[in-house]
Each structure stands twice: as structure tokens, then as C-alpha cells.
Fold this sequence. Notes:
Elements: H1 9-16, H2 23-37, H3 41-54, H4 59-71, H5 75-88, H6 93-105, H7 109-122, H8 127-139, H9 143-156, H10 161-185, H11 190-202, H12 206-222, H13 231-241, H14 245-257, H15 267-273, H16 277-284, H17 290-313, H18 318-331, H19 334-347, H20 352-364, H21 368-380, H22 388-398, H23 402-414, H24 420-432, H25 436-446, H26 454-465, H27 469-494
Helix pairs in contact: 1-2, 1-4, 2-3, 3-4, 4-5, 4-6, 5-6, 6-7, 6-8, 7-8, 8-9, 8-10, 9-10, 10-17, 11-12, 11-13, 12-13, 12-27, 13-14, 15-16, 16-17, 18-19, 19-20, 20-21, 21-22, 22-23, 22-24, 23-24, 24-25, 24-26, 25-26, 26-27
Amino acid sequence: MRLGMAHALLLFLFSAGLRAQSTDLNEKAERARELVLAGKPEQAIPVYRELARALPDNPEMLMNLCIAEFKARHYRDAVGTAQAALKLAPGLLTANLFLGASYAELGENAQAVAPLESVIAAQSNDKNARLMLAGALLALNRFDDAVMHFEKAADLAPGNPKVWYGLGQSYDQLSEQASRKLEQATPESAYAIALAADAAVGERRYGTAFRYYRQALSIQASAKEAEMRGIHEGLAAVYNQTGHQAWAAHEGNLERKVPAPDCTKRIVECEFLAGRDGAVVQATRSKQDAEAYYWAAKAYRRLARQAYEHLQRLPPSLESHLYAARDYDTQGLYREAGNEWRAALTLSPDDAHVQTSLVWSLYRARDYEAALALLQDFKKKGTEFRELSFLYGAALLNLEKPESAIPYLEAAVRNGAQFLPAESALGQAFLRAGRAADAIPHLKTALGSDEDGSIHFELLRAYQVTGQTEPAKKALAEYQAFRKSAEENKQIEQGSHITAP
């Protein structure tokens, strides 16, 4: 979280406190201030350190140093300097602000909360502190608290895209939380199954969504329960997406015919249907039943969508590109996601998460040349992230350079917890490099991650090449069964088994 230029004025205010000091100190303070304002905080730091040593009891001078350290991204140093200033002047708001901001930049969000809360307690309208506190709480999975501060930040800074992106993320997490509680409490209920169907639609798994919606209707009919609104609407969406417009129209008519709920008994549903999502949240906060979890999940999801819609109405920003990229990735539209990650990277070129996500999207879109070029550029800059070795090796493998890929894939396999895609890629690289015996253990380990039968097939080839007749026969049977099942599942998800209403 970069602090705005309003805080640069602090440098001027703190410099004014030296008027009673020597001319030399004043000149040094002025020079350091000008360096920071000119975007050269690195050069200002040694000057401020000299001034701080000359004025050991001056907390304002320490804060000048802290601000320069923060702007130079020396966050650990800024933490120590802010703490030193607080020892001289307990409760100094600027010190708490930069202490919390520095902790947040270091990813030490638990430590960031208390100093930022102290700023908010003294100055409730400090939008920078409010937004940073909301972000720290989101990172700590304190979603309700994060929402409270993001909503206040939205009042203070409605044009800030960070506000709406953070608010959307918080609501998304609360929706997921309610969905998990529903799944754990009553996995066989119509509520749980209908919500799973909604999620499948969002992931373009239309066969699964169709089956779940029909199952939810069947459960309600068997229990002689009143139909929930939204299920026929979901079926209509599935039919539309799979080219059955007449059937979709029929489901739309059924949705309109669903009787209105009795609002003396189904209060939460009525609040949701009236669009009062805040009331749904309040009404379900203390309840622990399937109905409450279901409507809470849907209300939070709609609140998230509204936050993202607000974000998209603002001028293009890092946050709007992040949202669009993640949305495309969820839908499996990896080329479109890659374009958005690239746009995000131009705005935040040192963001390791954006760098990683861009490479993943290019890799999944099978644009291996582009993925490799980007990885090579990151390597030259000294960028490191957990998946770098795997993606580098996998890209080389897919460009038919298995020998070159092997060292990177071996490094990925050795790097921490078991990573099945790396095991699979290393097995394939060994096989293509003529080292079939070395390939077998890695391919066997990776079988559980096979999605299309390719790993089963590579294992079959490895057994055949090494002359292992019986294991090869077994692997052939397993490959054929897996391919048949995978093809059937693919057709189902695409809608081949969808039937008329």
C-alpha cells in the first residue's frame, strides 16, 4: 500500500521543527526533504540518519527517516525507525501509520493491525489507514471485520479501485465460507446441491450443473417442500449455454410460476428476493441451518458481484485487471486471462503473484514460447517464485526439449511438498529423453492428477519400452478405461447428456 502525496507534506512540517537548530542541520534537512520529494529516497536516507544521530531526542526527525525508508521500500528498517519514534513519543499517529503500513508491506499482517487500529481510533476518517487495515484483516481471514473497514473506506474514497476490489474479495470469501458450512452441515440437502449447481455454471461445467439442479428439484418434491426460487432460472441458464433455447424458455416460465414464499416463515428468502442483501446477512449471522447458509452464500456472492461491477465502472486499474484475469482463469479462458495479467504487470511490474499468474495462463493456453520468454526475462531480473522451475521445465518439455527440461523439473520435484504436475512432467521428460526406467516412478506418482489419460498413456509406453509385459498389459487396460471415462465426462460437461424439461 503506497501512501499518498498528502503524507509527503509531513516532511516539510517536520523540517520546520529545525528552525532553532544550526544552519547546517537545517540545510541538510532541506536537502533530504527535496531528495524524497524528487523520488530519490535512497539518497535521502543517509542524510536523515545523520540528522537523527545529531538529534537523538527528536521523534519528528526519526519519522522523516522512516518515511524515506518506506518510500525506498526498506520496510524492515522503517519498522525499527517507527518503533524508535514511538518510544520517544508514544501514540504518535504518523509513527503508528507507517509502522502498520510497513508491516503490511512485509506481509506481517497480524503485526500491522494494532498500530493501524490506533490511527483509526484517533482519526476515523484516515482513508489510508482504513484501507490498509481492511487489507490486513482480509489477509488474516477476518472477513467480517475486513468488510466493515472496506465499506467505511468506500465512503471515504469511492473512486479508489483498491476499496472495491478488496470488498469484492471479502464478500467472495464470506460466500465460500457459508458454502463450506452448508456442505459440512447438510451435504445431501436441496440447498447444498443447488448451491453446488450454481458454482458449476460459473465454471462452465454444464452437465454437472444440470444434474445438480434436477437433483435439488427431486429432493424438494420428495420431501413435499415448496420450491426455492432460482433453480428453474439456473436450469434455463444451462439450457441457453448448451444451445437449447426453447427448453430454456420453458424453465424461465416455470421460474415465474414458482409461488411467492410465505414471508412470515421464510423471512430470509424474502429479504434476498427483495434485493436486501444486508438484511439477509444480518438475519443469518447467528443462525446455523441449511436455509441460512444457502441464502447467506447467495447474498454475499451478489454483494461481491456488485462491488466488482463498481470496480469495472472506474477507470482501468491494477485491480480491475486482476479481477478480470481471475474471472477468465476461472472460466478456463486462459488467453483472455493472459491479456489481463499482462495489463496488470505493466502497472505492477515487480508483483511476483501477477508474474506467476501470467505465466500460468500462458502455459495453460499452450503458448509455451511466450511463457518461456517471460520466464527467461524473470530469471534475468532475479525473480523467484515457487513454480518457476516447474513452469520453465514444462515449457521446455512442450517445446520438445526434454533433456533441457529435466534439471528444472528435478529441482521442482525436490522443492518442498509433493507437486504432482512436476512429477508428471519429469516422468514425461525422462521418457522422451530415452530414460524410460527413470520415468516410471514419477508417472506412477502423478496418476492421481491425470485429467485426459495422457499420464496413463505415458506410463504404458514406459512399461513397453522397458519390456515389462505384465505391467504394460495392466496399464493398457487402465488407460483404455480411463480414456473412455474421461471422454464421457467431457461430453457430459459439454451438455451431451442434457435432456428436455
